[in-house]
Design goal:
Chain lengths: 460, 375
């Protein structure tokens, strides 16, 4: 018997020599199927050009229109009158889609808070309008612009200072997080003292068609608003006003899931970030302001075809494949990810239904690591600004796909809704509220296991 | 997550391992197994960093500083000769910038330098208003302006008209005040590009001082990181990843020249979509973009090449016909672009441009084939 065990031991070590553990040897999950992060839209790229490719299964008219959308996504807007790309501002944050989503990826937190960047603040008054939306602030709307055309005063200048948050690990090591505290040191008219603010930064835009095509019932099936299963995690769907259908719909996009569709998100960004009117938002965002547009354009500054093409572009970008999924440390990290219960919100697998006109993203099994629901993320991330059903502590679970390629694509590792986390580890440590137990689990792990969990996340 | 005792887990693990086969440790589903450092690739990468990227950016920064100096001179002595001189230095800086477009990854993208110095269209409505608001004597700091009011095309607007240097009489003091601010900003950003790839220590004291005073010191050394491919401290997990990045950079610009820079204005018929339209430098820009690919592929800018440390030699050893296709593709793309006819803005028809677009796409496809040989 002894001989048998010894031979098994030798054989096993020779086979599994890449994993060594001091205390126990868990069964490592087989996660190899998750390499196909975007199902058939998955692309095997790891460098600077990992986010801005058409889905490899795209062809025919959809590929042709995707490429047209690509050019529109990069188009730089200028002040009217102009023959090409006219209509910028008067108030604006930046001049193109690409400027806030560089290489279709994640904007960095700006070195100088008022420089042109993918950062801005939302603003509202307490209460809601007839559709449940945050109340716009007279003279400012629901988004603050820190740039204006020459000859006009920008609505505001942003300010920021930082409060340290010290996080201790069980092994005695320590990390100091920097929580940004925003201010408005300058505004063209006074801002009401009761105004609420919320920071935003441009996230990656690939894979949006897949997320949009997750059947509503699949998302709602995970809702547990009152935490009936007592796992400490609720999960709430946002219900938001859809300007396109003029009805209330499930919120899917935006940091607080306040946009019901890719198109609504895009039209909102043209309008709020660049001051570009469209069929969905025909009135200038700064119309009537003393520092804004005196008139509205007779025709929208971009036509419906532009919205259609840019929407298709974002719906059909390739999703970069997850990497190193056979690596033992990565698999160990995947096991810890579940043990920490990260997967209850960052749900690995989703499926799409059938999407009319886009068979390439239809009926796909894919791995975004999101439940598309709102969760209380605790005081380190709270903005105190409700957005439809999302309260001041709640944020939508972000997809994790592609996160490990952020540095290669965008040259930084700034994460969360305003880029306050400067690494994946900081992003984990900023989690509290419903994620507090997961964050505590992580803090109590030995360094080797923390590294494994990080390596798993960075493999995505 | 359930933990098993060592003994049990060893048994289960052994069974699983037997079932899976022996090679599961480092195999991935679709990324092929690669050792992290290949010596030949490492040498190609070092050559690329030092004699393609750094040499090009150094030439660019020097030319941009010369342009700034010539604009200063023009401001001091407003003569036609000085206008012509500033135009010549604009074309020189422009050449090196266009010859850098096969490596727009890294510092140019991460620091937003590409859009900051080369955005089209120029916002002429705001530019006119900016000029109105300028004093004719005071120095003007351009750095806070939007990117559609800065860079090469803002300077081009001031210095050129209908493909020729502007008449000195039509250039106002306000124009020159504006141009000087823009040229300072352009030079500063090109110096940052050089320092970001060469390292601060490998740039001249003058350039170091400029960056320090502007608080624009690079936070990374992209050249060093790329040379370290396959090792700790590099974003490239393998030297093959870095080679693929080099090829992706070349593929991207081959695609852009054919399918955007040439095709877009032809498709729309709108001359406003033509870049470098005040200087009529468009075709030179496109040819320089192809030269950017040529330099990347042949292992250096002209007179600094190394045949044995070139991508060309590496690809040729793997598949001579792919190498031949790329070399022929580079030559053909340059020729067909020149054949469009000057100025580009007057030749915006399919008949004039089809062959050039096709040549760019052929080059792109050949580079894609080379990429498959690496991956």
């Amino acid at each position: 018997m002894k001989t048998f065990y010894f031979s098994v031991l030798i054989f096993s070590v020779s086979l599994l020599s890449c994993y060594k553990s001091d205390d126990y040897e868990p069964i490592l999950p087989d996660i190899s199927e998750r390499a196909l992060s975007g199902g058939a839209t998955t692309l095997y790229e790891t460098g600077a050009f990992s986010f801005n490719n058409p889905a490899p299964n795209l062809s025919g008219e959809n590929l042709k229109n995707h490429l047209k959308g690509d050019k529109l996504f990069e188009a730089n807007f200028v002040a009217a009158p102009a023959r090409l790309n006219a209509g910028l501002g008067v108030q604006y944050n930046n001049v193109s889609c690409e400027a806030c989503h560089p290489k279709d990826g994640r904007a960095r937190f700006p070195d100088k808070i008022n420089a042109f960047s993918g950062f801005f603040l939302r603003i509202s008054l307490p209460g809601t309008d007839a559709h449940g939306a945050p109340l716009p602030v007279p003279g400012f709307g629901d988004q603050l612009q820190n740039h204006a055309l020459v000859g006009y005063e920008p609505e505001v200048q942003f300010g920021v200072r930082y409060e340290p948050i010290i996080i201790d690990f069980s092994d005695g090591s320590r990390v100091t997080l920097q929580k940004p505290i925003y201010s408005i040191p300058q505004s063209y008219i006074p801002i009401p003292p009761q105004a609420l603010f919320s920071p935003r930064i441009g996230p990656p835009v690939f894979g949006l068609g897949l997320l949009e095509a997750i059947p509503e019932q699949d998302i709602l099936a995970r809702e547990d608003v009152n935490d009936a299963n007592a796992d400490g995690i609720s999960g709430k769907a946002n219900r938001v006003w859809d300007v396109q259908s003029q009805s209330t719909k499930l919120g899917r996009f935006g940091w607080k899931a306040n946009a019901p569709s890719v198109m609504a998100q895009i039209a909102g960004a043209y309008h709020g970030d660049m001051g570009i009117t469209s069929p969905l938002f025909p009135q200038e965002a700064d119309f009537g302001q003393t520092n804004g547009s005196a008139t509205n354009p007779a025709e929208p500054e971009i036509p419906q075809t532009t919205l259609d093409l840019v929407t298709l572009y974002c719906q059909t970008l390739a999703v970069p494949a997850a990497r190193n999924l056979h690596d033992t440390q990565v698999r160990r990290g995947a096991a810890l990810f579940e043990e920490a219960q990260c997967h209850l919100c960052h749900v690995p697998q989703q499926r799409t239904g059938t999407v009319a006109g886009i068979p390439e993203i239809s009926n796909q099994t894919f791995y975004p690591y999101t439940d598309m629901l709102l969760h209380d993320m605790g005081e380190y991330l709270a903005d105190g600004r409700p957005d439809f059903l999302a309260d001041g502590n709640e944020w939508k679970t972000r997809p994790l796909w592609g996160i490990g390629l952020t540095k290669n694509v965008n040259g930084h590792t700034h994460f969360l809704h305003d880029g306050r986390a400067k690494s994946v580890e900081e992003a984990i440590l900023f989690h509290a509220g419903e994620a507090k137990k997961s964050q505590e689990f992580y803090r109590k792990l030995p360094k080797k296991d923390r590294e494994a969990l990080l390596k798993f996340v960075e493999s995505l | 997550m359930i933990h098993f005792s060592k003994k049990t887990s060893m048994w289960v693990a052994t069974t699983v391992a037997l079932a899976l086969g022996v090679s599961s440790c480092s195999k991935d589903n679709s990324f092929p197994l690669q050792s992290s450092v290949n010596q030949q690739e490492k040498e190609i990468i070092a050559q690329y960093v030092d004699h393609v990227v750094v040499d090009t950016y150094r030439s660019l920064a020097n030319a941009a500083l010369e342009l700034q100096s010539n604009v200063e001179e023009l401001k001091t002595a407003k003569t036609q000769e000085n206008v012509n001189k500033a135009c010549q230095s604009w074309k020189k800086a422009r050449k090196y910038w266009e010859q850098s477009e096969a490596f727009l990854f890294g510092a140019a993208a991460d620091n937003n330098i590409d859009p900051h110095i080369d955005t089209w269209p120029l916002d002429q409505t705001q530019l006119s208003k900016t000029l109105e608001s300028l004093s004719s004597s005071n120095d003007f700091k351009a750095g806070d302006l939007g990117e559609n009011l800065l860079g090469f095309h803002a300077l081009e607007f001031v210095l050129f008209e209908n493909g020729q240097p502007k008449k000195v009489s039509s250039i106002t003091d306000k124009h020159l005040n504006y141009a000087l601010g823009v040229s300072e900003d352009l030079a500063l950003h090109t110096v940052k590009l050089e320092a970001s790839w060469a390292g601060m220590d490998n740039t001249s004291p003058k350039k170091q001082k400029l960056l320090t005073q502007a608080e624009m010191e690079p936070s990374r050394n992209y050249g060093e990181e790329m040379k370290l491919a396959g090792q700790v401290g590099s974003p490239y997990k393998t030297t093959a990843d870095a080679i693929v990045e080099i090829l992706n950079g070349a593929i991207t610009i081959a695609d852009e020249v054919g399918n955007t820079k040439i095709n877009d204005p032809v498709e729309s018929g709108d001359v406003m979509e033509v870049e470098s339209q005040f200087s009529w430098n468009s075709l030179t820009d496109f040819v320089d973009n192809i030269i950017s690919i040529e330099n990347a592929y042949l292992g250096g800018v002209e007179n600094h090449r190394s045949a044995e440390k070139s991508l060309s030699a590496y690809i040729k050893a793997k598949n001579p016909s792919v190498d031949a296709k790329i070399l022929a593709g580079i030559t053909k793309a340059k020729e067909e672009i020149k054949n469009i006819g000057e100025p580009f803005r007057s030749h915006l028809t399919k008949g004039n441009t089809d062959k050039a677009i096709e040549a760019c796409n052929e080059l792109k496809n050949a580079l894609e084939e080379a990429k498959k040989l690496i991956k």
